[in-house]
């Protein structure tokens, strides 16, 4: 099975909740915006039973250009990681 698209996810949530597609899309968009805002502000955002988004810092390092093999310097940057919860891990396995 291929991965679920946003449209397929919205359709599935419409069937589960008996809400209109526009309402479900609004809730999903609001949750996304809240998650991004909270990760930026506090460094993490938890979704109970699924996992959490965590802000992490990567140090500057040396890497290689895969096309030429030339050594390049990769700058330090801030990234967002997703850590799956134990409940979700156990339910999938």
CATH architecture of the largest domain: Irregular
Beta-strand content: 25-35%
Structural class: alpha+beta
Assign an overall shape: elongated
Q: What is the total number of structural domains?
A: 2
Helicity range of the residues?
A: 40-55%
User: How is the main sheet built?
Assistant: 3 strands, antiparallel
Classified by CATH, the class of the largest domain is: Few Secondary Structures
SSE order in H/E notation? HHEEEEEH
The helix count comes to 3
Q: Total strand count, please?
A: 5
Distance between the termini: 17 Å
Radius of gyration: 18 Å
Contiguous low-pLDDT stretches (5 residues minimum) are none
Determine the CATH superfamily of the largest domain. IHF-like DNA-binding proteins
Average per-residue pLDDT, rounded, comes to 93
Q: At the third CATH level, what is the topology name of the largest domain?
A: HU Protein, Chain A
Describe the strand arrangement of the main beta sheet, using strand numbers.
1-2-5
């Amino acid at each position: 099975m291929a991965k679920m698209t946003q449209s397929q996810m919205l359709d599935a949530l419409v069937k589960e909740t008996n809400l209109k597609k526009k309402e479900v899309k609004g809730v999903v968009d609001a949750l996304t915006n809240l998650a991004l805002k909270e990760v930026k502000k506090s460094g993490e955002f938890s979704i109970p039973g699924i996992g959490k988004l965590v802000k992490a810092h990567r140090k500057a390092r040396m890497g290689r250009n895969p096309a030429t093999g030339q050594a390049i310097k990769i700058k330090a940057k801030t990234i967002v990681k997703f850590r799956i919860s134990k409940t979700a891990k156990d339910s999938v396995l």
